[in-house]
């Protein structure tokens, strides 16, 4: 019997793929750091039964109608705003993502970014490496305290709760806003549910972990930054499109808020010509929330298991509902 075919949109370590190589015919885009060009992807998907894609691949109606065999699209991310779920449903394609396996790693990164931004770690590193450290001084690179401050978590899903656990370890007061109340977080972490307006007005650290949807598009806009404290630090590890970047640049430039730590941007990759890159009070990193070696390997395995499960009829472990 002919093997079913899987196409992977980046070059991945053969060792992770090897266990599946006897079962399926696997083709991969040849580069690890460059996305597959759209026209090649459209061609490859024609014959694929399963597609293993990245968050930077747009999985839309045009792509899905290119294939008559495609049964599953497996996204190497927990966020799936790059996939048109209605189109997938229309074409009978199951979409899967990678929840749970990346929760703690992404929360680690979120908290690391919060700490780096508050304590000016990146500036301090630059300062010493560019030989500016001539003398010790009382307020040299003085940042903001983290312990005992108020953190406001927007989007209290798995990653939001994992950030709240870390915040509790720092004796922080925890506010959250979410579509629904989270009784366990309220009981175990003493997190307090508040409106979005109250959260952005009261928190010292506002952390966005909210999925990107039409409702959350640019929720962090001029009006939102206006309501934040002048000492507020804004952290975004969700999706860049939840933020009006022009408004954020303005808020940072005019010191309406103190600083921002950003792992995600409206257009990725962002370039160093973007105004955010000119600001000392913006700490910017290239969408590496879940990027630990251990977690990325687990995510890749989960993606492969999801594809294999759909293709062999046992079902996906983590289908997007
Ligand atoms: C995801 O998985 O959606 C994250 O953005 C990866 O860092």
Verbal overview:
The protein has 321 residues and is α/β, with parallel strands linked by helices. The protein has 2 domains: 4-100 and 293-312, Rossmann fold; 103-284, NAD(P)-binding Rossmann-like Domain (Rossmann fold, 3-Layer(aba) Sandwich). The protein has 12 helices and 12 strands. The protein has helices spanning 14-21, 38-45, 61-64, 85-90, 103-118, 121-129, 158-169, 183-188, 196-202, 222-227, 245-253, 293-312; strands spanning 4-8, 24-28, 50-53, 72-75, 94-96, 150-154, 173-177, 192-193, 205-208, 233-236, 259-262, 282-284. The chain has a 7-stranded parallel β-sheet, with helices on both faces. A 5-stranded parallel β-sheet has the order 2-1-3-4-5. α5 packs across α7 (158-169). The longest helix is centred in the last third of the chain and has 20 residues, at 293-312. The mean pLDDT is 97. GO terms for molecular function: glyoxylate reductase (NADPH) activity; hydroxypyruvate reductase [NAD(P)H] activity; NAD binding. Keywords: Oxidoreductase. Residues 111-289 form the D-isomer specific 2-hydroxyacid dehydrogenase NAD-binding domain. InterPro entries: D-isomer_2-hydroxyacid_DH, D-isomer_2_OHA_DH_cat_dom, D-isomer_DH_CS1, D-isomer_DH_NAD-bd, NAD(P)-bd_dom_sf.
């Amino acid at each position: 019997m002919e093997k079913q075919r899987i196409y992977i949109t980046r070059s991945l370590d053969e060792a992770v793929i090897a266990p599946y190589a006897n079962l399926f015919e696997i083709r991969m885009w040849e580069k690890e750091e460059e996305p597959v060009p759209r026209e090649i992807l459209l061609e490859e998907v024609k014959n694929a039964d399963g597609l293993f894609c990245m968050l930077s691949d747009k999985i839309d109606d045009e792509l899905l109608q290119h294939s008559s065999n495609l049964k599953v699209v497996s996204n190497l991310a927990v966020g799936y705003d790059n996939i048109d779920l209605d189109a997938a449903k229309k074409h009978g394609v199951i979409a899967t993502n990678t929840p749970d396996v990346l929760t703690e790693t992404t929360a680690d990164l979120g908290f690391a970014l919060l700490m780096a931004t508050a304590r000016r770690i990146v500036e301090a590193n630059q300062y010493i490496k560019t030989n500016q450290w001539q003398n010790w001084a009382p307020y040299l690179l003085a940042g903001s305290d983290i312990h005992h401050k108020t953190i406001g978590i927007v989007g209290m899903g798995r990653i939001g709760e994992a950030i709240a656990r870390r915040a509790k370890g720092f004796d922080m007061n925890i506010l959250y806003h979410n579509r629904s109340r989270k009784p366990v977080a309220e009981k175990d972490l003493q997190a307090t549910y508040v409106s979005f307006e109250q959260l952005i007005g009261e928190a010292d650290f506002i952390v966005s972990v909210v999925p990107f949807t039409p409702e959350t598009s640019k929720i962090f806009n001029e009006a939102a930054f206006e309501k934040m404290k002048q000492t507020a630090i804004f952290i975004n590890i969700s999706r860049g499109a939840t933020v009006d970047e022009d408004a954020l640049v303005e808020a940072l430039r005019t010191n309406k808020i103190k600083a921002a730590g950003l792992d995600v941007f409206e257009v990725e990759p962002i370039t160093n010509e973007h105004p955010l890159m000119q600001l000392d009070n913006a700490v910017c990193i290239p969408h590496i929330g879940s990027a630990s070696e251990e977690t990325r390997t687990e995510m890749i395995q989960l993606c492969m298991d999801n594809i294999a499960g759909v293709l062999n009829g046992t079902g996906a472990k983590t289908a997007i509902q």
